[in-house]
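Lecture 7 notes: from sequence to structure.

We start with a single chain of 431 residues. Read the sequence below before looking at the structure.
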Amino acid sequence: MEYTSIQEAMDKGSGKVALRGWVHRERGSNKLKFVILRDSTNKIQCVIDKEAVGEENFSAADKLQIEASLQVFGTIKKEDRAPTGYEVHVTHFDVIGECDKFPIRSDQNREFLDDNRHLTLRTQRMASILKIRSTYFQVREEFFQKKGFFRFDPPILQPSQCEGGSTLFEVKYYNDKTYLSQSWQLYAEAAVYALENIYDAAPTFRAEKSKTSRHLSEFWMVEVECAWKDLHAISELAKEELKYCIKGVLERHEEDLKSLGQDVAKLKKMVSAEWPTIKYRDVLRILKEKKGLDVPFGKDLRTIEEEKVMEEFDTPVVVTHYPVEVMAFYKPRDPEHPDEALCFDMLAPEGYGEIVGGSQRSMDIEDMKKRLEAEGEDCANYEWYFDLRRYGGVPHSGYGVGAERVIAWICKLDSIKDAIPFPRTMLRWKP
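Now the structure, written as tokens:
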């Protein structure tokens, strides 16, 4: 027979089936075994009767342990008492891969689970997260295709910094040195002059000496760059993108989200609501008047301050016009308020903090040079970037979404480490 997935067999509902998967649970006696078989689509109860399969085949069932891999042949029928409403009465099965006592249990500590990440991925929790992650990227691709954007893939090896030299990963490049990408941005700015509206998804690297639950050394940044858009237009696009992606995940993974402890009704309500835009100075006012925190203008917001201000909102919030002095060199001054930059962050509620960062891009070469020199950078390394302003420069804007931060928020995860298959942090680079 042709093999089908468990979900396809359940959709069929009756008749003969051939399934493949792994033992999720097993119990029984010396005459009857109940095996919960799982594959990537669902789980199903398989009933192995000694009389039906024969003594030799049954003796193999008697030795089955969790995570052994099987091929199962039998007849499927509806059974309300079974965990997923169907069961297969087995006529024959083959053990493809035996399994010793599987070492992963839900009560084990974080360090052990991460040391054995290659096995932890098989747990129902991690499988649900990875399915949601996959859908998030697929739906995002769909969003930009519908809008007529072009996908643009940047280099991972880059000769200069974009987000601060202190977080660069240096790489030996033959007889020279280069760095792992902090962002696609500088290269995306070159591409908008050919393609105008572009997006990507790419691995990104930041050598931040941080051990928090919100930081990774290697993560996926999903970014956007658009010719002709200003700060308002680009931040509104970010809201539209995030809402579209969350709706797509909700449509396909409501049960997975529930299994992870997410309040699906609250998430649906959040996606249909308006997401406000406020200024950095408004944040300072809220912190002072409602939280008793006196944060001076010119100070970047820390995690605690983001969390405190977001206690006042039940949707994501776009915060604009951060102080120029704490922003990257390419974020331009607001002509009406020169101490403010034409930039934004999007903050998620419930303590998840910044999930998007973006800005208009500066067209003022001399101002960018001064700011780079103040950071100790050699402006000669950026001459190609300045050329973009010298040869037909136009206003343009962009943003980057921290994919793992969004996934952690959607899935209601305690740590961003579970939003990526194999986390890389300051202290972990294997398996």
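Residues 231-259 form the longest helix (29 residues). Keep this in mind for problem set 3.
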